[in-house]
Design a protein that fits this description.
InterPro entries: ArnR1-like_HTH (IPR038723), WH-like_DNA-bd_sf (IPR036388). The chain is mainly alpha-helical and 88 residues long. It is built from four helices and three strands. α1 crosses α2 and α1 packs across α4.
Length: 88
Amino acid sequence: MLMKSFDPDIRVLCRLAEAFSNAISLKKTHLHLASRLRWDLFNKYIEWLCANNYVLTDGNTYCLTSSGKEMFAKCLEFNVYLYGQRRT
């Protein structure tokens, strides 16, 4: 289910990418802390990531799919292009 009204922020996606770069799978709480968002907004990101097949979950633990790894790598690359360094 594609969320049409949600437009993710590249900076938040980069913060999540940084969190995943240090672990194969993460608990929802860890991702929430890494996102630095309110819980309700964080849940929109999680729903968007799941709906677009970027992450898989068993309910509490999340892991990247191959398309998720590719998307996060491109986000980080674009972030470096914009800011000249890894800054999130």
